[in-house]
Write a structure and sequence with these properties.
single chain, alpha+beta, six-stranded mixed barrel, 17 helices, about 55% helix, elongated
Length: about 425
């Protein structure tokens, strides 16, 4: 008796065996219908799609932020009204703030740059040689540019660095290291015929990539001494480039900077500059997640139809089980297990395939390139060396659990209906 009680326990051996037998039975024997298979496949594709989509979006977000934060300060400090000596003293105080990794002065002005008959706008950023190592996207610390003469010679020399897309992009200047470019500024030089814009020719010493098409199409790096002369800013900087260990903690850093400088410095952070980007990324991410979750919910709804058809096929079996002592709760749990197993198997396979695709995204991209002209993600267009993807295990876990709970939830409806069937009526018509 105790053995029978154990077998018939809630979700015990009897109920698990019945559920598994119904799932394995062939269609002609009243087993799971084609609808059940479709629901399994739908859940599988939805789970895999959600994992792949969210991983790729996370990769794009991380790549974009790395590019933006690599090519621009985390916190800006305005020092245009201070002399070099005063600005350097402020920079020394800021370096003592917890979380600050580097503080470098710079000047930034917009100019017209031309070469090979092409003209475009650009932003010249003046930087000292010793500060090149603080720029994370310069893998060699700017040594290639220094070797080419960047910052070397009288007044810093005439060697500059150009962003990759500004130098050789589709709408760039078509120049390489060693070529010359002309820069025209808004500052004017007085002459007998009135003021004329200041201009000078420079040699391209090196080409850099921040990873952002926007920045690589815009920036020119120039030695500080040369820029101070060109922009008539001798003995003055314009801004302080303040980099943090954690770029998200800008408010804490600005509070610390205000404390050590006695509120003598106006600061603002990268978030205020890029708030539109951040909001767009967050909205896009949320909407894509919601869309795929709705698709997954629709896929799990097919379980209702599949289990209902299974109940119809097994109505005689249900009646017999009820007459030999299986209660309504037992019948409910049997068909609840059927729906849950369908959802769990679909979710598990979706998780496995999704993780495999994300961890082998380079192979997948190469495969897709076989079927499209050119490349799926052309580096010259997107500024990406490959399709970025970051596997977020928390996202994977949430996706799997969502599919599991949705499968259990929708299975309750047909399972409850099966448990309410009258065994006498079922046997009479069978």
């Amino acid at each position: 008796m105790s053995e029978l009680g154990h077998v018939a326990a809630p979700f015990g051996k009897l109920e698990r065996t019945l559920a598994w037998r119904y799932l394995r039975a062939k269609r002609e024997h009243g087993g799971a219908s084609l609808i059940s298979i479709i629901s399994f496949v739908g859940i599988f594709f939805a789970v895999a799609a959600l994992i792949i989509t969210m991983s790729v979006m996370s990769g794009f977000r991380a790549t974009l932020l790395d590019a933006l934060l690599g090519g621009q300060p985390h916190v800006y400090g305005v020092v245009a009204s201070y002399s070099e000596e005063e600005a350097d003293a402020l920079a020394a105080k800021i370096r003592t703030v917890n979380g600050v990794t580097s503080v470098t002065p710079y000047i930034e002005e917009y100019v017209l740059i031309s070469a090979n008959g092409r003209k475009t706008g650009a932003a010249v950023r003046a930087i000292r040689n010793q500060d090149l190592a603080t720029l994370p996207f310069l893998k060699d610390g700017g040594q290639a540019a220094i070797d080419a003469g960047f910052g070397v010679g009288r007044n810093g020399g005439d060697v500059i660095m150009l962003g990759a897309f500004l130098a050789a992009g589709r709408e760039g200047l078509g120049v390489r290291p060693g070529d010359k470019v002309d820069i025209v500024t808004a500052q004017q030089t007085a002459g007998p015929m009135g003021g004329t814009p200041r201009s000078k020719s420079y040699v391209v010493g090196d080409v850099f990539k921040t990873g952002s098409v926007e920045l690589d199409s815009l920036y020119v790096f120039m030695p500080m001494d040369q820029a101070q002369i060109l922009f008539q800013s001798k003995d003055h900087y314009q801004m302080l480039d303040i980099r943090l260990k954690d770029p998200d903690k800008t408010h804490e850093a600005m509070a610390g900077i205000a404390s050590v400088t006695g509120n003598a410095l106006y600061t603002f952070d990268w978030k205020s500059q890029r708030q539109a980007y951040l909001n767009a990324l967050q909205v896009e991410r949320s909407m894509v997640r919601l869309l795929v979750m709705v698709i997954m919910a629709i896929a799990t709804l097919n379980i209702i139809v599949g289990v209902v058809m299974l109940v119809k096929n097994k109505s005689r079996d249900i009646a017999i089980l009820r007459t030999i002592g299986l209660g309504r709760g037992g019948v409910l749990r049997v068909f609840l297990l059927v729906g849950t197993v369908l959802g769990t198997m679909g979710a598990a396979l979706g998780v496995v395939v999704g993780v495999l695709v994300v961890t082998n995204i380079g192979v997948v991209e190469d495969f897709l390139n076989l079927f499209v002209p050119g490349k799926v993600f052309d580096p010259d267009v997107y500024g990406l060396e490959g399709l970025p993807a970051i596997l977020d295990w928390a996202e994977v876990t949430r996706t799997g659990l969502y599919a599991l709970f949705m499968s259990m939830g929708v299975s309750i409806i047909p399972a409850w209906w099966a448990s309410r069937q009258d065994p006498v009526s079922a046997l009479r018509f069978e």
